[in-house]
Amino acid sequence: FPFVTISIISINILIYIYQLTLRPPAYEFFVLRAGAIPYEITHFADIYPINIIRPPLTLFLAIFVHGGFLHVAGNMLYLWIFGDNIEDRLGHSMFIVFYLLSGLIASLAHIIMLPSSTVPMIGASGAIAGVLGAYFMLYPRAHVLTLVFFFFYINTIRIPALIFLGLWFVFQV
Question: How far apart are CA 29 and CA 49, in angstroms?
Fold first, then answer.
């Protein structure tokens, strides 16, 4: 049973629901504090507003904060589709480590590209990219059962997972 995948999805959704309860000034403050800001990490300094969460820890917290409904829904859909297989292959504990390390490596790559940026990085896209990369490496010929909507016609078909992975990549660009 993929309880780690389901737990990660649940945490992301709960944090997003919390974000929805915040009014605009509080929402912006939350994103500034929970997001990983490259400048803070590369300069070992807080920029206003001062954060009780140390900048290196925001690299992990930011993985669970999203910028909108489509952002969280898209990331969690892909985690739901592909995460359980990777969790099954790696085991529960190693999947948690792999997921967090994937998010951390993606954030560090972004920081290397824009070390002086004061824009907070949020979202699980880097961690999801790691899961999708692992899925592609472990299951290159797999197919995914997919709902297809064509006006009033709804059916399920199996399509190559590579198409799903390609769609995710296009959405990220």
Answer: 8
How far is residue 67 CA from its own chain's centroid? 11
Torsions phi, psi for 44 (to 5 deg): 50, 45
Instruction: Please give the model's pTM, rounded to 2 decimal places.
Output: 0.88
d(CA 108, CA 110): 5
CA distance to 4, 19, 33, 57, 137, per residue, from 84 (Å): 8, 26, 31, 26, 15
The candidate with the shortest Cα–Cα distance to 156, out of 145, 140, 169, 167, is: 145
Other CB atoms within 10 Å distance of the CB of residue 77? 14
Q: Each residue of 94-134: pLDDT tens digit? A: 999 999 999 999 999 999 999 999 999 999 999 999 999 99
